[in-house]
Amino acid sequence: MADFALNRRVTHRRRGVGGKVLGIAAAVIACAFALELVFQLVIGPAVTVKRVVVESDLRFSHAEIVSLAGLSGNESYFGIDPVAIVSRLEAHPSVRSARLEKAFPDTVKLTVSGRRPLGMLMVQTADGDVPAVFDEEGVVFRAGSSIENWDLPVFSGVRFEDFRVGARLPAEFSELLTELKRIQLESPALFDSISELRVQPGAGRSFDVVVYTVRYRTPVRVGSKVNEEQLRYVLVVLDLLHRQGRAAEIVELDFRTADIVYRTRGE
Questions:
Q1: How far is Cα of residue 212 from the mean position of the Cα atoms in its chain?
Q2: pLDDT tens, position by position, 156-187
Q3: pLDDT tens digits, residue range 202-234?
Q4: Which terminus, N or C, of the chain has the lesser number of Cβ atoms within 10 Å?
């Protein structure tokens, strides 16, 4: 009988301890919720962005980049959405990449990198044909008469159905553009020797590139790829033909196979 009574008292005590733990947990949760509410409604909005630092290689003013980011100057520091701001910046055709960093208590830093021109093409607009420039990703990021004197190879034979700045060249050109960018960075003098790259469509989605150099106007067909070694060889052959006085009779050189083939006038 005494043992039974003791067991009842122990069980009752354990239940009392459990109830106290649940009560403390509920109080802690309520306290945390209250603190979060105070932060969201009072403290958070009071901490605002007072300083926006911009690092960029674009020819945009500080105010223009801040505007592109969608910052008005009175944002809550804790309410800043880095993903949304970076997305807005990278939506601009001239922006290649963007990054946002926050420094407590009131500073936001925007790092914006612009696209670098690789080539130029002529596009049809409501105002007629105008020059436009693109980068190694094939993004046409600027157009207008202000760039017509830029010293870049002309990319011809490409047409857009409904041109707009921000349009992309077809994906088939990606390997060609990547190689051209490599030549531009590693052999700038060789890159500057290119006057025009004319794209001529083949069967299906295939194409050939016909190269025109600055020094010689003899067209050279090279297939769908252009690399540094091949381009140097093209210049050597063109120079040899002109020194021999044979260039005038040649309509086109073909470098698509191991043997160089040429067509002469009248063929």
A1: 28
A2: 999 898 899 999 999 999 999 999 999 999 99
A3: 888 899 999 999 999 999 999 998 999 999 999
A4: N
Encoded tokens for 39 = 């932060």
Q: Provide DSSP, 200-255.
A: EE-STT-EEEEEEESS----EE-TT---HHHHHHHHHHHHHHHHTT-GGGEEEEE-
- Claim: this prediction has a pTM higher than 0.70: yes
Beta carbons of 199 and 207 less than 8 angstroms apart? yes
- Token reading at 153: 């190879």
- The total number of residues shown for the chain amounts to 267
246 secondary structure, DSSP code:
-
Based on the fold, state whether residues 189 and 207 are members of the same structural domain.
yes
Q: How many CB atoms lie within 10 A of CB 46?
A: 10
For 107-143, how does the pLDDT look when each residue is reduced to its tens digit (9 = 90+)?
999 999 999 999 999 998 777 889 999 999 999 999 9
Residues 65, 54 contacting (CB under 8 angstroms): yes
Instruction: Please report which helix (H) or strand (E) contains residue 64, including its range.
Output: helix 62-69
Residues 151 and 77 in one domain: no
Cis (ω within 30 of 0) for the bond into 105?
yes
- Match 């044909």 to its residue by tokens: 129
Q: Do residues 105 and 61 share a domain?
A: yes
| Phi and psi angles of residue 101, each rounded to the nearest 5 degrees, phi first | -130, 145
